[in-house]
Amino acid sequence: MRFGSVDASRERLESLKSSGLLGDAHGIDFDRVTELAARAVNVPVSLVSLVDEDRQVFAGACGLSEPLKTSRQTPIHYSFCQHAVNLRQPLVIPDARKNPLVAKNPAIEEFGVVAYLGFPVLGAGQHFYGAVCAVDTVPRQWREEEIEVMRGFTSIVSALIEQHLGRVYQKLLTDVILHDLKMPLGRIQAAADVFAARAGELPHGLDALARSLKGSADQANAMVGTLLSKNRQVGRCDDLHGTAQTAAKLLRPRAEEKGIQIRVDETAARIPLELPDRVMAQVLDHLIANSLRFSNIGEVRVRIKRIGEAAIIDVEDDGPGFQAEDYPRIFQRYAPLSAKPTGGEASSGLGLSIVKTLLESEGGTIVLLSRPGESAVFRITVPVRRQD
User: Fold this and answer.
1) Which domain holds residue 158?
2) Is 107 within a domain?
3) How crowded is the C-beta side of 138, counted as CA atoms within 13 Å?
4) Phi, psi (5° rounding) for residue 17?
5) Which one of 51, 93, 110, 346 is CB 3.0 to 4.6 Å from 130, fit for a cystine?
6) Structural domains counted in the chain
7) How far is it, in rounded angstroms, from Cα 79 to Cα 76?
8) Whether residue 154 sits in one domain with residue 289
9) Are residues 142 and 260 in the same domain?
């Protein structure tokens, strides 16, 4: 038997299901929000309830007893929150036993739900996904300040959901773009293979460019393939020195145009890393390219060593370095820095922030070692892979 009727419009239900919030992999700590809400209004139970077609799912919960604490859901006819969704406005119930909308709800007898205060929470496309609520086991006249407090917590939950939906959309968009890149990149790689195979027949100078083009095409295709892969273990860096040498080789034609040498120090032993090879390649590509962009003399040096369970990579150039005012914003996105490209190149102001984000997502770090006015020295620290 069903008590009341939930908004079961196809659009709302599809939006809720596609949001990823009904599972437990969304990464949002709704439990913390409900814990704070319960303390703020002095109730035994607070919930973030998502109202599906035949059930309500507690994405956030504080104060539940078993079996609800483990199951974190009930059939829909136990739901008070469905009415907040249907009404599209706050639901304030001092005593559920006397309220005709919910008086026959089995949650009153089975779970002791007597007083209820709930606000519908907005998801995508103006659809209400569920409600943020406070529950008491005794009759209660909800004060105006308590209602406003719950309104505030609902605003927080709504903002968290909005941020989550933005990440979901960006991931979908990225997957589509990566998929669509495969065909043109395949054509570029095919052309690069032809040029590289006939590099010996090309005029002097173009042969190195042809090989560099093939290396770049191979790298781009590998990056797209790895990004599309669901298995993060695929493509881990097996040889840090080899990855550094490859990055240097791809950038040498650009360096030679500016009269700059790229030197990668030799290492005594192979150093395998925990992070994917594509990440290490991107990091080195950004740092070496950055050094070339802001230098016009000398060389770029890449030094590699292992200390315990970490690999240390220093990237140093002979450029002008940074000024004191640059240091607080060196890794910020779009931050204007004092140094200017020396060959008319464009600088997006994103390279160093991308490097920092890539490394930190894989347990690595980057710091600027050099002092103001000195040539730039960046130090990367990344975890070494333990022997399998």
Assistant:
1) 10-163
2) yes
3) 3
4) -65, -40
5) 51
6) 2
7) 5
8) no
9) no
Q: How many CA atoms lie within 13 Å of 97's alpha carbon, on the beta-carbon side?
A: 12
Cβ contact 116:42 at 8 Å = no
Residue 200 lies in a domain: no
Question: Mapping DSSP to helix (H, G, I), strand (E, B) and coil, where does residue 248 land?
Answer: helix
Domain CATH for 379: 3.30.565.10
Q: Which amino acid is at 222?
A: A
3-class secondary structure for 261-323?
EEEECCCCCCCCECCEHHHHHHHHHHHHHHHHHCCCCCEEEEEEEEECCEEEEEEECCCCCCC
Contact 369, 377 (CB under 8 A): yes
Residue 118 neighbours by CB distance under 10 Å: 27
Q: In this predicted model, what pLDDT tens digit does every residue of 316-340 receive, in sequence order?
A: 998 888 888 888 888 887 667 777 7
Q: Which residues of 209-233 are buried (b: 16+ CB within 10 A; e: fewer)?
A: ebbbbbbbbbbebebbebeeeeeee
20 & 98 share domain: yes
Task: Tell me: do 237 and 150 sit in the same domain.
Answer: no
User: 102 and 238 share a domain?
Assistant: no
- How far is residue 85's CA from residue 120's CA, in Å, rounded to a whole number? 5
CA dihedral (91, 97, 101, 107) positive or negative: positive
- pLDDT band at 226; cut points 50, 70, 90: low
3-state secondary structure of 90: coil
Measured CA to CA, the distance from residue 291 to residue 277 in angstroms comes to 21
Residues 194, 197, 201, 203: is their CA dihedral positive or negative? positive
**3-state SS assignment for residue 84:** helix
> Contact, 68 vs 74, CB < 8 A?
yes
Q: Beta-carbon neighbour count of residue 259 at 10 Å?
A: 11
Predicted model pTM? 0.51
Quick check: is 191 in a domain? Answer: no
| Span 67-73, average pLDDT | 94
Exposure on the CB side of residue 102, measured as CA atoms within 13 A: 26
Q: The sheet that has 261-264: what strands, in order across it?
A: 261-264, 299-307, 310-316, 377-383, 365-368
Assign residue 156 the CATH number of its domain.
3.30.450.40
Say what the pLDDT of residue 348 is.
53
